[in-house]
Amino acid sequence: MYKLRMFNMKWQLLNYFLISSVVTVSGIYIVLEYYEKELSSWEFRLWFAFAILVVSLSVGFIATRRWQRKVDELHVAMLELSKGNFTVRIDMEPVEPFLYLYDAFNSMATSIEERVQLMQKLGEAEAIRDQELTESAVMEERRRLARDLHDTVSQELFAIHMSASSLPKILERNPAAAPALMNQLIEMSHHAQKQMRGLISQLRPIELKDMSLQEALEKWFPEYCRTHELQGQLDVSLPEIISEAIEHQFFLIIQEGLANVIKHASAKQVRLAIYEREHQYVLQLQDDGQGFERRDIPSASHGLSTMRERAQKLGGEVEIDSKLGSGTRVRVRIPRFSGHSGGKQE
């Protein structure tokens, strides 16, 4: 079959060559047969040569243009495939010089689409299975952390109580020392309040079983931003229902990304956007923090590697763009296949 296709391509090239040759030979024959006397004129010879050249170039231009269109069509299809459009295919005509190339491309695109789709399904199944296996352990760990951190806050509250209890005596014996103690109480109470908000935000279990990703984010994201004194902007636009596994992985990636913002960015504003393109789901998290240089971040950085692993489980990728003093943008792209929304499991 391959040899037959190569033969068809070579035969079409030969056709163009034969057409050009026949036109040229026919022109020479006609001139020699009917215009023998005019051949003595240099002007006639010049016009004849020009006509033959124009005909030959025209045939060559038509052939080249036709082939160029075919190459451009293949190039565009390859670009679409590289951008994550795994459904792209090239329409083939019954008589097609590039038939073997187009057929090979379509076969390759079909194979890639099937493999990425299978990878995504396996990743979803693995994510759901891991979630079920670790749910009880995670909840127990959260309770343990809540107890430990509660003890820390309790100690601070106890110190506030002791200082407040001593305030009447200080006012009685040394009124001048009272303002300093009151300022200390205000600072301690503010710190304890901030700690308590952080504990509630971090340890409160967020479940997606009874709500969509958008509903969960609308509930959790503003509270998280207030707790950590950030100005947050949320923009979620998902017209269709996406699978539970993708929602879960997105939510975990968002939590990891925001934790990095709090720990490292020193940011004042953060914007979270989730939307879909024709062939992709896109998550974008952007802050106005201090940013970083690539060389300053270890390749094995836990936060970044965790986000990449979560995206790769579903056949996706993570792109991180950051500059010192210009903030950081994290973009996650997950392939979107038609007819594969997944929905919520009952």
From TrEMBL:
Keyword line: ATP-binding, Cell membrane, Kinase, Membrane, Nucleotide-binding, Phosphoprotein, Transferase, Transmembrane, Transmembrane helix, Two-component regulatory system
CDD domains named in the record: HATPase_UhpB-NarQ-NarX-like (cd16917)
PROSITE patterns given in the database record: HAMP, HIS_KIN
Annotated EC: 2.7.13.3
Catalytic reactions on record: ATP + protein L-histidine = ADP + protein N-phospho-L-histidine
Domain Histidine kinase, chain residue ranges per copy: 148-338
Pfam families given in the database record: HATPase_c, HisKA_3
Protein location: Cell membrane
SMART domains per UniProt: HAMP, HATPase_c
HAMP domain: residues covered: 65-117
Membrane topology qualifier: Multi-pass membrane protein
Chain ranges passing through the membrane: 12-32, 44-63
Uppermost EC category: transferase
Protein name: histidine kinase
Lineage: Bacteria, Bacillati, Bacillota, Bacilli, Bacillales
